[in-house]
Design brief:
heterodimer; A: mainly beta; B: Ubiquitin-like (UB roll); five-stranded mixed sheet; 5 strands
């Protein structure tokens, strides 16, 4: 392993941070696409030179950028995301019906076996797939049309499909998450879908706290060696499933708050999980002004704060749902970015942290590529 | 140029970067020389701008984009509106603007 490449999306451009395997000295490049919102960048797991980026701006819409040389150069790919058929309506904030309208791409998930195949999770919530390197996009409309779509409604950030998890052991299986609808699973490569929210409880948020759909799931994560186990950071509650999303149990345990956005699994320990607790749904900053990553080595319930190297006073930033990632080096690296524009890295499983770069624009996403 | 009208075009900075053009460039617009024809010509010359000025499919102007020419706001004019004579004559540019909308 020669090093890592950290891909950082911010509200005003993208940055690429590189280091050798020691992960102590960093080179910072950027901003790329300066002034544009970069919701997400992600590299192909089968070609480290292939990276996709979602570039958007309220004025000028959506672009997809693609690099074939590890981020040194970029070219626009296709940007037409047309819903299949007549997309109908979903719930709006005020309870009225609202027509489905494409706003932006929140998340790009390159396929596990083909650098030219990539999935896009978009707002208003839908799943698209490209099989030609991002040149053209087709909706997997079975998700939006599976039956519960009219009940979906936007969270504060919009009605976004923000998480796409591919099952490495079953190529036909995939999980997605939508705010605010919940988790959905396909077992036939996206043709048909079913809700996978049994066990979630949204008391005080939904009129039926255990409804099939409507839950504000913030992110889900899976370890590739244990694909039936999923971890979830919900609006409130940290959850786990051991049956591929058929049922969920709460594992918030001793967390100081079970509200948060990101959740991530250690690269080599499928029961080691990381979250960043945030005080509440209306106070999106760490409890007590202390930026703490919490780690469980037992798959939840028992959590330990990781504070070494992180600000422990007067810190009132947030860490967004796609802004945490792990590398694949022997001693697992953990990375996250804040809404205050800082990117922190740990080269020792989270035991200690170093700020790689400070004062970037507000960080929207962090992904890591482990370089051969 | 092959018989059309050479229209001078000015784009906002973000779209210049996307298209890889300077502050001003020219596109060939059909003899009809309408607002819609000018936008069609811009998108044909620089396909990356498809969807960035007007929506795909509907060709509806994006909400925070404006069209100016000769001191006039053409943003709300229909696509078959003739371009102003000074634009057709090449004396004035057709200007695409990112509307004032904060941050």
């Amino acid at each position: 392993m020669s090093g890592v490449r950290v891909l950082v999306g911010t509200r005003k451009g993208a940055f690429i941070l590189t280091s050798d395997a020691r992960r102590r000295d960093w080179k910072v490049e950027g901003p790329l696409f300066g002034g544009w919102q970069i919701y997400h960048l992600k590299g192909s797991p089968v070609d480290v030179d292939r990276i996709y980026a979602s570039q958007s701006l309220g004025w000028f819409g959506q672009q997809i950028q693609r690099s074939d040389d590890g981020g040194r150069s970029w070219a626009p790919a296709g940007n037409e995301f047309a819903y299949a058929g007549v997309p109908g309506t979903h719930q709006w904030y005020d309870g009225t019906r609202h027509p489905w309208k494409f706003e932006r791409v929140w998340h790009l998930e390159p396929a596990l076996d083909d650098p030219d195949t990539v999935y896009a999770g978009v707002e208003d919530a839908a799943l698209f797939r490209s099989r030609d390197g991002g040149a053209s996009w087709q909706e997997l409309q079975g998700l939006r049309e599976h039956g519960s779509g009219p009940k979906w409604q936007p969270g504060a950030g919009g009605m976004c499909l923000h998480t796409i998890v591919l099952d490495p052991s079953r190529p036909e299986r995939m999980f997605i998450a939508i705010s605010a609808a919940g988790v959905f699973r396909t077992d036939d490569a996206g043709v048909s879908w079913r809700a996978a929210n049994n066990g979630l409880n949204s008391a005080g948020i939904l009129p039926d706290p255990e409804a099939d759909v409507g839950h504000c799931v913030h992110r889900i994560a899976m370890h590739p060696s244990k694909p039936d186990t999923l971890f979830m950071q919900k609006h409130w509650d940290v959850m786990r499933s051991d049956d591929g999303g058929d049922s969920w149990v709460e594992v918030s345990g001793n967390l100081p708050s079970d509200f948060g956005f990101p959740i991530e699994v250690h690269a080599h320990e499928p029961e080691t999980v990381y979250v960043v607790p945030i005080k509440s749904d209306s106070e999106h900053y760490p409890p007590e002004g202390k930026l703490r990553v919490y780690r469980s080595r037992s798959g939840g319930n028992d959590w330990e704060p990781l504070t070494k190297g992180l600000p422990q006073e007067n810190c009132y930033v947030n860490v967004l749902r796609d802004a945490m990632a792990v590398d694949g080096l022997e001693r697992c690296g953990v990375y996250f970015g804040t809404t205050g524009g800082d990117v922190y890295a740990s080269n020792d499983d989270g035991d200690s942290w170093t700020g790689i770069v400070h004062d970037l624009p507000s960080v929207l996403s962090v992904e890591v590529q482990t370089l051969p | 140029m092959t018989g059309g009208i050479a229209v001078r075009v000015v784009l906002p900075e973000h779209l210049r970067t996307l298209a890889g053009v300077g502050r001003e460039f020219r596109v060939e617009v059909a003899h009809t020389a309408t607002l819609g024809a000018a936008l069609d010509a811009i998108e044909a010359a620089y396909p990356v701008l498809r969807g960035a000025i007007r929506d795909h499919g509907t060709h509806q102007r994006r909400a925070f984009v404006r069209y100016f020419a000769v001191g006039r706001d053409l943003s709300h004019e229909p696509a078959d509106t003739p371009l102003p004579a000074p634009v057709v004559a090449g004396h004035e540019p057709f200007v695409v603007v990112g509307a004032m909308a904060g941050g």
